[in-house]
Amino acid sequence: MLRLYEGIIEAFRLILAFDPALLEIVLLSLRVSVIAIFISTLLGVPLGTLLGLKPEKRTRLINKIIFTFMGMPPVVAGLIIYLILSRQGPLGVLGLLYTPSAMIIAQVFLATPIVTGLTMVGIRAKGSEIEELARSLGAGSALAAWTVVKESRIAILGAIITGFSRVVAEVGAVMIVGGNIAGRTRVMTTAIVLETRKGNFELAIGLGIILLLVSFIINSILYNIQRGGKAN
Predict the structure, then answer these.
(1) Structural domain span for residue 63
(2) Residue 59: which of 125, 143, 120 has the closest Cα?
C-alpha cells in the first residue's frame, strides 16, 4: 500500500511539474494511438459496412478470419510486423523498424479487425432493413449504404472506442517493433515495463495512473458523444 500511495503522489507531482520527459512519453503515446485508430477507422468502417450488408452465409469465412484477428495476441502481431519491416523483410528498405511509424502500423494491424468486426455486427443488426427502406424511397447503392452507416453510427462509434482502448494500452507489439527507445519510441506502456524491471515501482505506478487518466478522459469524451447520438 505504501508503494501505491507513493506512486499516486509521484504521478501528481510529475503532472503538476509538467515534467518534460513525462510529457514527451504521454504525447508520443497519444499521437501514435490517435493516428492508428484514425487509419483503422478509415479501413475498418467501410469494410465492416460492406460485410454487414451482405448475407452472412456469403461472408462466413471472412467473418471467421476477422474474428480470429480480433483476438490476436499482441506479441504475434508485433512479430509479424517486425518480420515485414526488418532488413530481410519485404518493406525493410523503408527503414521503419524502431520508429513511431512501425508502432502505428502494429497498432493498425491490431485495431482494424476490431473496428471491422464490431462495425459489421452493428450494421448487420439493422442494416438490411434500413437499406431496403432507403432503396424503396429511391436511393442508389451509395446513398443507401451511407444511410445505413449514419443510422448505425452509435454501434460504429462503439467499435472505434473499443479499438482505441485496445491500442492505447498496447505494450507487446509496440515494444517489439518500436524498441522502447528513450526520446524516440518510448510510450507509457513500454515505460511502465522498463521502470518495473528497474525496480522503480513508484514511477511505474505513476505512469500507470496517468495512462488510466488519459484513457478515461478520451473514452469519456467518445462515450458522451455516443450517448448524445442515442438521445437524438
Answers:
(1) 2-231
(2) 120
Whole-prediction pTM: 0.86
The answer to whether 205 touches 3, Cβ cutoff 8 Å, is yes
Count of domains in the chain? 1
- Taking only the tens place, the pLDDT of each residue in 23-69 is 888 889 989 999 999 999 999 999 998 898 888 888 889 999 999 99
Q: CB within 8 A of 205, min separation 6: which ones?
A: 3, 4, 6, 7, 8, 10, 11
Give per-residue pLDDT as tens, 151-188. Answer: 788 888 889 988 998 898 888 899 999 998 888 899 98
- In whole angstroms, what separates CA 81 from the centre of its chain? 16
CATH number at residue 47: 1.10.3720.10
